[in-house]
Amino acid sequence: MTSPTILTDNKWKLDLRKRKYMGLFLVPRQVFEATNVNDGTKRLLSFKFNTAIKLRGTASITSGREISIPKHLQHYFEEADWFECEILDNTLYEKVTLDIY
């Protein structure tokens, strides 16, 4: 599996070309610690793909430091070669709103 490229304290890039499952993505430890993300919370994120698709909204962070991608959005990850993900703030949210924008 490809290692993420850390772009800033709250942003990273991940190559998807050799990846099989698109439902969970690990938040890199450096980003996880710098943004004070907690397991089991929902955070505001943005995803930018090489395909020009952009997703934005809140997503669940699992107890394993992973972002859980809703099933209806996983095809955007399957169609892309890479994405950049950014954690946009430290606010805790109550529901998942991640969608295309």
Largest sheet: 8 strands, antiparallel
SS element count, helices? 2
Q: Extract low-pLDDT stretches.
A: none
Q: How many DSSP-defined strands? A: 8
What percentage of amino acids are in beta strands?
A: 35-45%
Radius of gyration: 12 Å
Mean pLDDT across residues: 95
What gap, in angstroms, lies between the N and C termini? 28 Å
Which bin fits the share of residues in helices? Answer: 10-25%
Tell me the series of helices and strands, N- to C-terminal: EEEHEEEHEE
Structural class: mainly beta
Shape: globular
Characterization of this structure:
The chain has 2 helices and 8 strands. The protein has 101 residues and is mainly β. A hairpin with a 4-residue loop joins strand 4 (42-49) and strand 5. The longest helix is centred in the first third of the chain and has 6 residues, at 29-34. It is globular. Strands 1, 2, 3, 4, 5, 6, 7 and 8 form an 8-stranded antiparallel sheet that branches. The termini are far apart. The model has no long low-confidence stretch (mean pLDDT 95). The protein has helices at residues 29-34, 74-79; strands at 5-8, 11-15, 24-26, 42-49, 54-61, 66-68, 82-87, 99-100.
